[in-house]
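Hi, here's the filled form for the chain we discussed.

Project: internal
Contact: R.S.
Residues: 207
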Amino acid sequence: MPLVVYKLGGSLLTLSDLDRRLTTLLEEGVPLPQSATGHALQRAVLVGGGQAADVVRDWDRRHELGAERSHDLALAAMTFNARFVHSLLEHSELVSRRSLVRKAGERGAIAILDPAPVLAEAERRAAEPLPRSWEVSSDSIAAFLAIKWRAAALVLVKSTPRPARPSPSSAARRGAVDKYFPQLATRLPLVAWVNLRSKRPVVERWL
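And the returned structure, exactly as it came back:
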């Protein structure tokens, strides 16, 4: 059962019809490789920090929290947002382990990721953990998980149109993705993009 990881930008949580838009998106297809088509999908959603993570950024500037404490608090902000999205979506499950993503998929449910335990599990099995830095946001966390879980695709669900150039470095310089993302992008089989604020959101292949 192929896995697709969706990274939902935290800025999208202000959409008044987020539940409808996100449900429609998750029901639509993804431009997967031919070998992965025709199969039921596992769908895992990582929700970004958005305004909640911005509060942590402000605390770090004011109180010099440091990388580790800021990282832990930012993950907690993402968990807060994940619980919100879980409350909006029917047929979703808040999951804390890779095995539970698989089980949710078998039941036809959408897995909403609890980021701290999910990332900790993936990092225990990795040669190196992700850097603790504000250059690493939910974009890179989603990419890291997609790589470790051998996902068929990563879908970046954003508030902006897909970059014209298929260049993660260029997108990082413009702030469309975080600064660490280009180091992970080449290890992903497919990266798609969708502007969920557009009138008719369409999942498009980017990388």
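Let me know if anything looks off before we file it.
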